[in-house]
Write a structure and sequence with these properties.
With about 140 residues, the protein is α/β, with parallel strands linked by helices. It has helices spanning about 20-30, 45-60, 80-90, 105-115, 130-135, and strands at about 15, 40-45, 65-70, 95-100, 120-125.
C-alpha cells in the first residue's frame, strides 16, 4: 500500500482524538499558541473521529493534515482507530498521525516506531518543542 502525506501549507487542519478533556484542552492550547493558524477539531473518542472521516469521504473532502491520537480510550483504542481509518480511507490521502500518550509503555513506543502510518510518538502533554518538530517535519523516523 502506497502512503502519501499531504504537503505543508497554510491553514492546516488538525484533529485531536482523546477521551480526556483536560488532555484535549492542553493539546489544543499548545497548538493555538503556535505561530501558525490551524483549523482544530476535537473528538472525545475514536468512533467520533471515524464518523467524521467517513463524512469527509462521502463529501469527497480531504482528511485532516494531522491527527493527534490518544492510545488508551474506552471502546476503541488508538490502534483500532488507525486500523479502521486505513480501511475507510482507501484511496484518500492519509494524515500524519502523532500518538500522544500519558502512559510510557515500551510496547506502544515500539509499535509506533514500526507502524507504517504513525509519524511520531510523544508523551502528554505535547510541548512547544514537540510541535516545532512536527510542524517543521523534523520528527525522527524512530522518535
Amino acid at each position: 500500500m502506497l502512503l502519501i502525506t499531504k504537503p505543508i501549507g497554510m491553514n492546516r487542519t488538525i484533529w485531536i482524538i482523546d477521551d480526556d478533556l483536560v488532555s484535549q484542552f492542553a493539546t489544543r492550547y499548545c497548538i493555538e499558541q503556535y505561530d501558525e493558524v490551524f483549523s482544530i477539531e476535537t473528538f472525545e473518542n475514536a468512533e467520533a473521529g471515524l464518523v467524521a472521516a467517513s463524512e469527509l469521504k462521502a463529501k469527497k473532502k480531504p482528511l485532516p493534515h494531522i491527527i493527534f491520537l490518544d492510545l488508551i480510550m474506552d471502546n476503541m483504542n488508538g490502534w483500532e482507530f488507525i486500523d479502521n481509518l486505513l480501511l475507510l480511507a482507501d484511496g484518500m490521502v492519509l494524515p500524519d498521525i502523532y500518538v500522544l500518550s500519558a502512559f510510557v509503555r515500551a510496547k506502544d513506543r515500539e509499535i509506533a516506531k514500526k507502524h507504517q502510518v504513525v509519524s511520531g510518538y510523544f508523551d502528554k502533554p505535547i510541548t512547544r518543542m514537540g510541535l516545532n518538530k512536527i510542524f517543521t517535519n523534523k520528527v525522527p523516523i524512530n522518535p
